[in-house]
Amino acid sequence: MKRFLDLADFSREEILDLLALARHLEQHPEPRALAGKILGLVFFNPSLRTLASFQVGMMKLGGSSFVITPGQGTWQLESRLGAVMNGAAAEHVREGLPVLASYADALGIRAFAEGKDLRHDLAETNFKAMASVVEKPLINLESAVNHPCQALADWKTLDDIAVPQRAKFVLSWANHPRVTPIAVPAATVHMAAQRGMEVVVLRPEGFALPPEIMDKARAAAAASGGSVRETQDRSEALAGAHVLYAKEWGSTTHYGDSAGDAALRANLADWCVREDWFTGAAADCKFMHCLPVRRNVAVADEVLDGPRSIVLREAHNRLTAQMAVLHRLLA
Ligand code: CP
C-alpha cells in the first residue's frame, strides 16, 4: 500500500484484511515494527482525535512523528495554484510539502473544504494538488469530501460489536450553529454501503448529499449487496434501524452562502438527536458520531450518556484502525 486516501480505492476484501490486521495488532502488539520510521503530520485545520491518535499510533509501533500546523509557529502555506503570494502566506505547498516529505517516511495531510464552490470541493482540487507533489506514502487525514481514517475506524467499530452486515444503518443530519463540511457524511455513507448495509440517509430539505456522493455510495452498495436511499421522514428512516449515525453538515443547495444556509437551519432545532428518535428502532439500536459533537444542539445528553452511545469506542478505534494503515504503509 502506497497511499491511504479513500476507502473506495480498496476492495471490500482489502479493507477486511486491513481490519484483521488492526485486530491482530490489538492482541499482539508490535512495539518495534516501525522502529526508525517517521510520520509527518500537516494540519491545515484543527483536530483532537486525528492528531493524537496518529502520534500515539506511531509511538506504539516504535516510530515517531512531527506535527506542522501551517501559520502557527511555521510559515503560513499557500495552496491555491497560480496564487499571487503577496498576502500572509510566505511559502507555497509546492515547495513546503516536498520538503516535509523529504524529512519523513510518510506524510499525512488534513485540509478541509474551502466551502465556497461545491464543484471545486467535490473534485478535491486542493487535496489532489497537494498529493501530486508528495512522492512518499500519503494519508488523507480529512479532505474536502473524504475522511477515510474515520470511515475505517467506524467500520471496525461496527464489526467489534457484531452489527450484522445487512443491518439497517441510518446516517442522519444533525443541527449545528454553523456550516460544517460534508467529508464525514460522504465517507460514512460510502463505508456503510461498501460494508453491505441497508443505508438510509435522513436529512431535511436543502441538505441532500450531492448526487456524486450518493452515486459513489450506490456503486459500492451494488458491489457489496447493500443498498442506499434517502428520505426526510424520520420515523420511516428509523423504523427497525440497528445504527443511527448522526452528523452535522452544511446545506448543499446553499453551498458557500452562509446566510442562506443559516436561514434554512433556523427552523431545524428539532434535529437534535433525542431518545424519542429511537421509538420504532431496533431495541438495541446503537448511536454513533465521529466527534467532536455539540451537546444538546446536535445530540442530547440523554443519548450521548446513555447505553446506545458507542462514540468513545469509535474514537478509540481511530487509533487501532490507523495503526493497521501505518503498518501497511511503513512496516
Ligand atoms: N473525528 C475527527 O476527525 O476528530 P478530530 O477532528 O478531532 O480529528
What does this 3D model show about the protein?
The chain has 331 residues and is an alpha/beta fold. It folds into two domains: 160 residues, Rossmann fold, CATH 3.40.50; 148 residues, Aspartate/ornithine carbamoyltransferase (Rossmann fold, 3-Layer(aba) Sandwich), CATH 3.40.50. The chain contains twelve helices and twelve strands. It has a five-stranded parallel β-sheet with strand order 1-7-6-2-3, sandwiched between helices. The protein has a five-stranded parallel β-sheet with strand order 10-9-8-11-12. The chain has a two-stranded parallel sheet with strand order 4-5. Strand 8, helix 7 and strand 9 form a beta-alpha-beta unit. Helix 6 packs across helix 7. Phosphoric acid mono(formamide)ester binds next to helix 2.
Report a brief summary of the structure.
With 331 residues, this protein is an alpha/beta fold. It is built from 12 helices and 12 strands. It folds into 2 domains: 3-146 and 315-330, Aspartate/ornithine carbamoyltransferase (Rossmann fold, 3-Layer(aba) Sandwich), CATH 3.40.50; 162-309, 3-Layer(aba) Sandwich (Rossmann fold).
